[in-house]
């Protein structure tokens, strides 16, 4: 029996992820969740992989991110999806994230595309990121880009090519649909989407708070790794 852990996102619930498991067809599960008329936009698979014991891994992930859980009776967490991916990779057997978006209707595709493009826009100046700053890709820290424009869509240079955050992320991952590059590019330890949300909320962390959060993050990863 295949054990699958998935991380789902929904542009209508930006900033939240659903962490769950399935022993059946992943595509079928996603379509079932998206079929509800109470969900404004369809779910997309941010990441999915096979694991040896889905029940154990799911429990460990839910426990590790319990402070981010919205409701103890539901599988939704207010957290950057890449942070969950980093933990899940410790238990991963095979990455089975679909290269297509699994969205069925034309109307849903158009609505999803518009929402992704809107969230993918990023103002480096408002985020206090200067010209010439270096950002790196979350899944591969050797992939680094330089900020060459603070406001335009094509704001970074990667391997000598001027490109956008979203186009570059899509190309690196090999996906056949549009994604928000702000979920994947990192500056000073935060994804750009995390940084934007934090600054919009007016929260500023001290060095001691950042260090403590880092220690807690490492401990949660260690707990999951021991159960691999």
Going across the major beta sheet, what is the strand order? 9-8-7-6-10-11
**Intertermini distance:** 18 Å
Task: Look at the helices and sheets and give the structural class.
Answer: alpha+beta
Shape: globular
Largest sheet: 6 strands, antiparallel
Q: Which range does the strand content fall in?
A: 15-25%
Treating each run of at least 4 consecutive H or I residues as one helix, how many helices?
Answer: 7
Low-pLDDT windows of residues: none
Query: If you average the pLDDT, what whole number results?
Result: 89
Radius of gyration: 18 Å
Question: How many β-strands, per DSSP?
Answer: 11
Structurally, the number of domains stands at: 2
Helix amount: 25-40%
SSE topology string: EEHEHEHEHEEEEHEEHH
Describe the protein in words:
This protein has 228 residues and is of the alpha+beta class. It has two domains: 4-104; 119-215. The protein has helices spanning 26-34, 54-64, 81-88, 106-120, 165-173, 192-201, 207-226; strands at residues 4-9, 16-22, 44-50, 76-78, 94-95, 134-137, 140-147, 156-158, 161-163, 185-187, 190-191. The strands form two sheets. The chain has a six-stranded antiparallel β-sheet. Strands 4-2-1-3-5 form a five-stranded antiparallel β-sheet, with helices on both faces. β10 (185-187) and β11 (190-191) form a beta hairpin. The radius of gyration is 18 Å and the shape is globular.
């Amino acid at each position: 029996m295949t054990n699958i852990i998935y991380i789902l996102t929904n542009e209508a619930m930006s900033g939240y992820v659903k962490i769950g498991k399935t022993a059946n067809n992943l595509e079928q599960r996603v379509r079932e969740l998206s079929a509800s008329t109470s969900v404004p936009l369809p779910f997309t698979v941010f990441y999915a992989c096979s694991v040896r014991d889905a029940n154990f891994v799911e429990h460990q992930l839910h426990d590790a991110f319990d402070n981010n859980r919205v409701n103890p009776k539901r599988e939704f967490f207010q957290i950057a999806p890449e942070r969950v991916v980093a933990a899940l990779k410790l238990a991963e057997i095979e990455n089975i994230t679909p290269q297509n978006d699994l969205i069925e209707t034309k109307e849903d595709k158009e609505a999803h595309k518009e929402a992704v493009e809107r969230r993918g826009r990023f103002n480096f100046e408002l985020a206090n990121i200067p010209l010439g700053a270096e950002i790196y890709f979350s899944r591969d820290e050797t992939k680094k880009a330089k900020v060459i424009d603070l406001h335009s869509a094509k704001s970074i240079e990667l391997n000598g090519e001027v490109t956008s955050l979203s186009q570059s992320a899509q190309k690196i991952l090999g996906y056949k649909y549009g994604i928000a590059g702000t979920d994947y590019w990192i500056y000073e330890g935060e994804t750009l989407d995390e940084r934007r949300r934090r600054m919009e909320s007016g929260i500023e962390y001290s060095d001691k708070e950042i260090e403590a959060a880092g220690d807690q993050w490492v401990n949660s990863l260690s707990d999951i790794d021991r159960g691999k």
